[in-house]
Design brief:
GMP Synthetase, Chain A, domain 3; globular
């Protein structure tokens, strides 16, 4: 789901944010004027006179919105799912680049996803992922998102995420659906 508004909104309270693209954690003061650029995954991208920021869905009230339920990592309220490679990829598709309304899997940022069985029917997942630009400060933020989402899956004991930049990411790595959504020629 993507929500945008050109209407300025004043923050009702001080709010923790992550600056885009630097990845720096900071706080915006109560009364700061912002605009919602998008809502995808479990965060909003907002813009203000201070720059562009990511705000967690738990802080939606600060921008005058009712927090929308983020996609449930473990299928909360749904029948328990069995661990599978598809379940891993479904989780990766719930992590979004805060500047682009496309998930990291369809953007082609996942270079490798290796699933290894370990003792007791548990699993280790090793991910190699990239960013759309090598200097992107959001790398550790997205890395943390991936670790959190995958660790919540049933029987997952370990998750290792490595940021890699070789080969460099390019639009050709995107899925056909992502290229269509972003207006790239096929």
């Amino acid at each position: 789901m993507s929500t945008t508004t050109n209407t300025p909104i004043k923050l009702s309270r001080e709010c923790e944010v992550i600056e885009i693209p630097s990845g720096v954690h900071m706080k915006l003061p109560a009364g700061a004027e912002v605009r919602v650029m998008q809502f995808v995954g479990s965060s909003y991208t907002i813009a203000s006179d201070y720059g562009m920021f990511r705000i967690d869905v738990k802080d939606a009230d600060a921008i005058g919105l009712t927090p929308l339920a983020a996609p449930a990592a473990t299928g909360e309220g749904q029948p328990k799912q069995q661990f599978s490679e598809k379940l891993v990829w479904d989780q990766l598709k719930t992590v979004f680049d805060p500047e682009i309304p496309v998930n990291i899997a369809d953007l082609g940022l996942i270079y490798a996803c290796d699933i290894t069985p370990i003792d007791g029917g548990e699993h280790r997942i090793d991910i190699k992922m990239s960013m759309t630009a090598p200097g992107c400060g959001m790398g550790n933020v997205l890395k943390s998102d991936v670790e959190s989402k995958l660790t919540s899956l049933p029987t997952v004991k370990q998750v290792n995420v490595e940021l890699v930049f070789d080969p460099p990411w390019g639009p050709a790595r995107m899925s056909e659906a992502a290229r269509l959504q972003l207006g790239f020629d096929l």
